Amino acid sequence: MEKEYKYNRVFEKEYDVIVIGAGHAGCEASLAPARMGLDVLTMTVNLDHVAFMPCNPSIGGPGKGHIVREIDALGGEMARNMDETMIQIRMLNTTKGPAVHGLRGQADKKKYHLRMKQILEDQPNLDLKQEIAEVLVEENGVIKGVITKTGILFKAKKVVITTGTFLKGKVIIGEATFNAGPNQQYPANKLSESLNELGFELRRFKTGTPPRINKRSIDFSKMHEQEGEKDLTFSFDSPPYERDQVSCYLTYTNDKTHEIIHENKMRTPLFSGIIEGVGPRYCPSIEDKVVRFPEKGRHQLFLEPEGELTAEYYISGLSTSLPEDVQYDILSTIPGLENAEIMRPGYAIEYDCFDPNDLKLSLETKKIKGLFSAGQINGTSGYEEAAGQGLIAGINAALSLKSQEPLILDRSQAYIGVLIDELVTKGTEEPYRMMTSRAEYRLILRQDNADLRLKEIGHNLGLISDKRYQKFLDKKKDIEQTLEFLRNYQVTPTPENREQLKSLDSGALKKPVKLAKLLKRPEVDYDDLRFFAPELPEVSQEVKDQVSIQTKYKGYIDRQMSQVEQFKKMEDKLIPQDIEYDSLENLRLEAREKLKKIKPRSLGQASRISGVSPADISVLMIYIEQQEREKKDGTK
Amino acid sequence: MNTMKEDTIAAIATPFGTSGTGKVRMSGPEAIKIGNKIFQASSNMKLTEAQSHTAHHGYVVDPKTNKTIDEVLAILMINPRSFTGENVVEFDCHGGMVPLESVLELLLDNGARMAEPGEFSRRAFMNGKLDMAQAEAIIDVINSKTEKSLSIAMEQLKGGLSDKVNNIKDKVVTLLAHLEASIDFPEDEIEGFDSSQLNERLNEVEKPLKDLIKTSKQGKLYQEGIKTVIAGKPNVGKSSLLNYLLQENRAIVTDIPGTTRDVIEEYINLDGIPLKIIDTAGVRESDDVVEQIGVKKTRTSLEKADLVLMMLDVSQGLTEEDIKVYNLIKKQPTIVVINKTDLDKKVDIDKMQKKFKEHPLLLISVKEEEGLEELKNTILEEILQEKINTDNEVLVTKVRHRDALIRALESLQKVKVSLDDGMPYDFLTIDLKDVLFNLSSITGETVTEDIIDQIFSDFCLGK
Fold first, then answer.
1. Closest approach of chain A CAs to the CA of B168, in angstroms?
2. Which of A257, A619, B25, B290 is 20 to 30 A from A306 (CA-CA)?
3. Is some CB atom of chain B closer than 8 A to the CB atom of A98?
4. Quick one: CA torsion of B404, B405, B406, B412, rounded to 10 degrees?
5. What pLDDT is stored for residue B40 in this prediction?
6. pLDDT at A317
7. pLDDT tens readout for residues A349-388
């Protein structure tokens, strides 16, 4: 069943890994295997759009910011690229608990792109080329390479596909439609067909963007200014971020705006039926918001600068596919935007994507060996979600070449683990966005401890340098020693100590207590302890924060850790991949079908498939045990 | 899902229904410790010090109240020499669901978890206690038990329990969705709560939850029958009332005082609530030996009564004997029933009302069938201590449900503690999710998607 492929020439170099696409998933998927010593080719439709941000110029937020920190701890590039190029950073959610603190940074789109492009260009073992991938070449279910639009066959042992919204991309602005990728780029139509031929069922998702307007036409005096904060960085290893920051601005829609939207409802492509794809609920267009929540008198808009070398401002919250003339009418009703000059109109974009049920937890496709996929093509949305998958797909492409076990992060290790587990196990009915409420072990998966959770893995993979790792080990040692000190140091209720506690508005001390117990008090900070214990270790702010969190919330953390232990037991029970579900007659039909489709890796993953009951798990468990015993008896 | 947890599980091991004796089985690392907490051996030996494969006579006693639940035989098997390969304690109890469920409840209250269908067998298999030939059989057992317990569960959910639980669940989901939305979308305009608002929202969950748990006591009464004693001096009409309630002539009725010489027990079904009606002999002093025994029995049953119907004769007035009877029962929940209103009144009703002002007082005539409907309603009200409408009232009768509700309440109380301690939202959600998880284990639905769906239906979010 050899297929005939047409091409003009075979490229002389055979690559270990080819990555199709150089967006946020593609960049990480390229850098990881190259840094692990493999030959990588990255091909993109347009070299001027490497690490391009077609949507808003920001990275982070709760859940998403966590992923960026995890990428950094595993040796990815997103966090450092952001620290080098961003123009504002803030920590969100500081009052709602340490686990949900979220870093959010304003990117300079052009600088972000340029710096990332440079990193790829300078990366040894990595070739960056402007090519349009059209056909995936496979032989007996194994990937062999990629043929481009211009007729070159690039051979490779592994291929990672990270095409974002380019697959049969269709841009819609009111009644006008174009076949295009984001920002009117060349869409990947043929590649979509090639995937169909390989047996992938593609689905249609939709997302949207707001208009961009010229800074000189904005009246900022009618808006609320939001400034950045000092001393924050995404990467654990970046130097302190000290530059002047650029502000964002808040304004609101009003009754007048909503009236205009209602009047033009019939001209929105969603209502007129032009849009077929499924859009995300958390990223609704302004017309969606106004129609679905009529009781809301106003909707918040957030003006973000697209960069320092451009006058373009992105109006977050005003995503729309209404006709351009209506976009003008809408803007004219909004305080500060009355005279706004649109530079790029808002648009909706539809694209083809995979059913992520077709993937393994390693992000390799189940159908074609050696073909991996990551990012928006897997049904997610967001730069961070894409980058996290790209990193894992790149790492696993490399590991499989080295005949090593894939890197699979579980739900108790990382948000990236939660993300991939949910995609692969449950699938998604809308573009998937990470939220902290998706993580059952949220308190363990904090953004402050991503390095403690993952840096060792990054180092073992060769993605974290020895120098960076040593710095981390030093920090870890500081944390342990400080915790030890707090556990052992006794504070006695001397008159001075009592007086000091009083001045801190803290309860009286009746008998001697350990220092850790004092730190547990909400009103007592690490530095307050120095009065009671002059020998208190002098450590970095990072270490102080870590020690404080681990001490203050110990009870809750311990409880979650014991849940994690239980969870791990089920995750560690692996299901043999050659299992014949059809021979397990005691499985209910629905469960058998689901198990056959998803092919879970472990009993834990199987138990999360909807339609698989605890009784089905018992059947599986006993079957696996039986098999193991048979094997054991056989070897005797 | 609970599979493979190495915790301690318990369940009733004998089939549902009434039989001579029944078995409650507990298996897991803590089994002996938990068993020891609730068991008092006649020999005073502690279970924790007993040898493996020994049986001990004694009593299951609630360590909180010191109340004796049942006389049992405790059988101890120390790991790995047991059916499951773990520590196992079995209690052979008196048959009937009531003692069995009471013992099980006590185990759950003291640290055991309700076993899932087939879980004992599965543990046995996983610990190498069963050979491969038996494995297939176990799968069948698991499947059939799951089906059976499913159908039993469905049965139990009838009568509105799931509605009640779902109502509480909805409140929790709405609150959680609000907290989660404000956590995950900090830049959107979501109004937060101050701590008193949060407290109020938690109370809105706590109250119906507590009410539901309270009904589990009533649920127990349902199964056991409510011990209702008809008391009064001889010939006041006790047996006539019993017969009326039974709608058949079960007891012998004559005009000669003292005809009912023994305690007569009958079950009736009053609007769905089983009453165990106990007609007593009088309590007068007598030289008749047989009658003396009857009087003694009467006193005993009066002490154990859930409810006493104290009968007086309107035509006789309040006699010294009446007062004697009343003194015996006045601490029990009592309804004063003045019978024979068809005859001439010799008592001053106002005076009586004053005298018995702590109890409901009714005038009836069994002969003319007057006031009897009202009596029935008063009985129900008195039992359930609130106006009862049996169509809407949901009673929690199953140990599994009660256990889940109590766990939900405990988690809710942890949320309140966190709130009092000034903990941020994230910490409230941890236990609030446990509340939801426990409630969902009753109705058997998953919850994670519920919260996310709720977030998007309640709030306008995103850019």
1. 21
2. A257
3. yes
4. 110
5. 93
6. 93
7. 999 999 999 999 999 999 999 999 999 999 999 999 999 9
Using the Cβ of B226 and the Cβ atoms of chain A, whether some distance falls under 8 Å is answered with no
- Give which of B111, B110, B112, B130 is closest to B122, Cα–Cα: B130
In angstroms, how far is CA B43 from the centroid of its own chain? 31
DSSP state of A509: P
Phi first, then psi, for residue B5 (nearest 5°) are -70, 140
Residue ranges of chain A with per-residue pLDDT less than 50 = 1
Q: What per-residue confidence (pLDDT) applies to A149?
A: 95
Nearest CA distance, A315 vs chain B (angstrom)? 9
CB atoms B460 and A97 under 8 Å: no
- Closest CB to B132: pick one of A316, A553, A629: A629
- B463/A319 Cβ within 8 A: yes
Instruction: Say whether A251 sits in a helix, a strand or coil.
Output: strand
Residue with tokens 């078995």: B23
Residue A310 corresponds to which tokens in the numbers above? 């451009």
- Going by C-alpha positions, the residue among B82, B146, B70, B56 that lies closest to residue B107 is B70
Nearest CA in chain B to A521: B421
Return the H-helix or E-strand segment holding B444. none
> Any chain A CB within 8 A of the CB of B113?
no
Rounded CA-CA distance B295/A100 in Å is 71
Lowest mean pLDDT among A372-381, A465-474, B70-79, B283-292: B283-292
Residue the block writes with tokens 């009897």: B372
- Tell me the whole-structure pTM to 2 decimals: 0.81
Position A17, amino acid: V
Tell me: pLDDT of B422 over 70.
yes
Cis ω before A269 (30° cut-off from 0): no
Average pLDDT of chain B? 78
* Pick from B63-77, B259-273, B361-375: least confident: B259-273
Q: Are A316 and B463 an interchain contact pair (Cβ–Cβ within 8 Å)?
A: yes
For residue A208, the cross-strand partners are A348
d(CA A614, CA B4): 11
Closest Cα in chain A, distance from residue B33 (Å): 21
